[in-house]
Amino acid sequence: MKIDKELQELLPVLSVDEYEKLEQSILKYGILDPIKVWKEPKTKKWVIIDGHNRHSILQKHIDEIDRLYNAWTSFKIMYEEELHNRDEVKQWMLEQQLGRRNLSEVERYEIVQRFKSLFEERAKKNQSAGGKGLTNLTKVNVRKEMAKVAGTSEGTYQKLDKIMQSDNKELKQKLKNREVSVDKAYRMLKNPIPKKNEEVTPQQQIEKFDNRMNEIDKEISSLRIEREALMCRRSSLFEALDIECELKYDFILDK
Length: 255
Description:
Layout: H1 5-8, H2 16-29, E1 35-39, E2 46-50, H3 52-60, H4 62-69, E3 75-78, H5 86-98, H6 105-114, H7 116-131, H8 142-150, H9 154-164, H10 169-176, H11 182-190, H12 202-237
Parallel strand pairs: 1-3
Antiparallel strand pairs: 1-2
Helix pairs in contact: 2-3, 6-8, 8-9, 9-11, 10-11
């Protein structure tokens, strides 16, 4: 059985406390959620696609778990007929992660971010297909698709990305703890409150305002492009409508 590094890195890492709790639960009750393995078509090797921590604990306590719970019944095999290739495996893993309950916006963002390469690969394939002359292909907007999967708007996803990619650890932790909303955290990032005894020069204020205005201009431009695209799509839909004409015509016999 193979541990695939690429697939393993797509999954969240448990803290020491979380790992120990999982270990104690497995020793007490067995592996309640089966470890999922998939047979890779090219290499014909069995690859773990869900349950890396459970597998690690199973290896550590194999004799004890096998004696108590029959460890080898704790696996579920996903065949090629279910998942045809690695992209489908990644999509399945993404859906499994997002299927957990009570996920915050930050948690959903972090899950989707780990699968960013999946969306980028789709965009490349779509672009390549368009270059080969295939028609009716809609350009893939990576961030828009990621926002859709995360269950949020593109604007909110962009704000989340700005916050989570920043160096403000305190603000990121507040957002994770749900102490502030995404909008408030974004405003706090863009307009940080000066610390006591910290002097803000007029030049620094001007630079801050200029940066924010540039961001607003980019957002306006992006929204204008999206609006024009929507108008074109809206107009094209009228061709498919079968609207009865309200006017009535009378034909008069004329010599």
